[in-house]
Design goal:
Shape: globular
CATH topology of the largest domain: Rossmann fold
Strand order of the largest sheet: 1-6-5-2
Order of helices and strands: HHHHEHHHEHHEHEEHE
Mean pLDDT: 83
Structural class: alpha/beta
Largest sheet: 4 strands, parallel
Low-confidence stretches: 1-20, 28-33
Radius of gyration: 24 Å
Distance between the termini: 82 Å
CATH architecture of the largest domain: 3-Layer(aba) Sandwich
Number of domains: 2
CATH class of the largest domain: Alpha Beta
Strand content: 5-15%
Length: about 270
Amino acid sequence: MSEQDQASSHPSGRWRGKFRDRLKACGTTIASLPRTALDIALPTLCVSCHEPVTGEGVCAACWGRLSFIAPPFCARLGIPFVYDPGPGLLSMQAIADPPAYQRARAAVRYDDVARTMVHALKYQDRTDLAPTMGRWMARAGQELLGDADALVPVPLHWGRSWSRRYNQSGALAAVIGKSAHLPVIGNVLRRVRPTLQQVGLSKADRALNVQGAFKVPLEDKSSVQGRRIVLVDDVLTSGATVDACARALLRARAASVDVLVFARVVDTVQTPI
């Protein structure tokens, strides 16, 4: 019999073992106390109405105000239709001005609650929102993710990344990648020059602002070549940014590029169906 077996068979050894087990249990309870106290003292608030919530960052009332995008929608741009015109129908925008990317999908319309969520994630360090937003995106983009080989987040310029400390698109891509079991290749697409904020610019100015701003370095082209890429971003407005990114990835010989965003602007005046 080993010394350890002898010790455990002795009454004092059994007592010491039980004591250690009780101590571990107490330690687990004590370790959870600071977190519980913190949750009571500083509860998570709804990002929109600032009422206390548990976990998701959006209360039930504000969740009900989100406009989730579901079929029927444009097969190319993912713009929702008022009624179902049949499978595979394209919107007027997709026919008149087809993008470089193949398909785009969004979880929600860019309305008041969605805008608040995006701004909180982007500018207010509310990274706790990324898991919820990413799960909604993964559900909305199931079709794209099922065909994909890898995810690429829309990059920030290094100066903006340094000041913001994280890339919100990268945070969303990490959640989606884990859910869909897809790799996230975050360094292959570079923003090689700073650009103006797109907010407030016209569609033509947005396109000019990001023209030539993205590039896949020569040494990273092998990571993209022949692969079906899903480009991840937070918001799709005019589509200028993701279109410029898609062109850079296609120049690097990506097999195809799809786009998955949390929210997209829907112009009901221009949506014909």
